[in-house]
Amino acid sequence: MKTILHTAASRGHAQHGWLNSWHTFSFADYYNPERMHFGALRVLNDDTVAAGMGFSAHPHSNMEIISIPLSGDLHHKDNTGRDAIIKENDVQIMSAGSGIIHSETNANQNRQVKFLQIWVMPKEKNIQPRYQQITLNQNTLNNQLATIVAPNNPDALWINQDAWFSMGKFSKNTAITYKLNNPNNGVYIFMIEGNAIINNITLNKRDAIGVTATDSIPLKIMEGAQILLMEVPMLA
User: Fold this and answer.
1) In the chain, where the domains are located
2) Which of 19, 103, 107, 108 suits a disulfide with 57, CB 3.0-4.6 Å?
3) Where does the chain have alpha helices with state H?
4) What pLDDT digit, counting tens, does each position of 41-75 carry?
5) Of 130, 139, 192, residue with least CA distance to 165
């Protein structure tokens, strides 16, 4: 098993007043040649957007874009006619494909919205743009990992890549093992809340670790935790 640790404090940071954003990988004005991507995982932004503010209409192409609200609600609009609210406990995926224009704003006028925006490089380019959204059954997250994104699971969001995302909320002193869908993939583990030990490395809130060269990963939860695992192909 090989690992690479990315602590919360080592991330890039941008403060724009209405937007407070932490960048795990190089993004916008943050550039680190050693932090360009982890396999097909290209962007992991941890964003806080002020009440009523957000990202105005802008284009994307050939990227799989996943949005996960951690608190508050997002308002999504795009040029396909989609107009939707992504609430806390929802997950959204947008295959930008051959090109799409969308906006993402805080749907709340009285509080911040905190969300993760994740970009995954696609398996096939220039597919027809598509959008999908689900509400997570919180019972499926209790002390177990629930698959939320997959190329082959009808209960999860479909992704144009051989990638699997799993999420769970765990009690103190819980032990679990994640088994890879493809042993040639890598897994990027992001601690949303709490802390855990992986391969004798302690991860705290917003820390992350990339794991390769294994077919399974044991995790020991030290405190109540919320964890996101992203299994992706390890591209050159």
Assistant:
1) 12-135, 138-232
2) 103
3) none
4) 999 999 999 999 999 999 999 999 999 999 999 99
5) 192
Q: What pLDDT is stored for residue 81 in this prediction?
A: 87
Please count the residues of the chain: 236
Question: What is the DSSP code string of 48-61?
Answer: EE-TT-EEEEEEE-
Q: 161 is written with which tokens? A: 């890549």
**Higher model confidence: residue 217 or residue 81?**
217
pLDDT at 80 over 90: no
How much is the pLDDT for 223? 85
The set of long-range contacts for 16-23, using a CB threshold of 8 Å and a minimum separation of 24, is 17/50, 18/49, 18/50, 18/53, 18/54, 19/47, 19/48, 19/49, 19/50, 19/53, 20/47, 20/48, 21/45, 21/46, 21/47, 21/48, 22/46, 22/47, 22/206
CA dihedral sign of residues 14, 3, 39, 164: negative
The CATH class of 138-232 is mainly beta
230: closest CA among 192, 200, 202, 201? 192
Given this chain, do its domains 12-135 and 138-232 carry the same CATH topology? yes
Burial of 81 per CB tally in 10 Å (0-12, 13-18, 19+):
exposed
CATH code for residues 12-135: 2.60.120.10
Distances (CA, A) of 191 to 16, 79, 125: 24, 34, 31
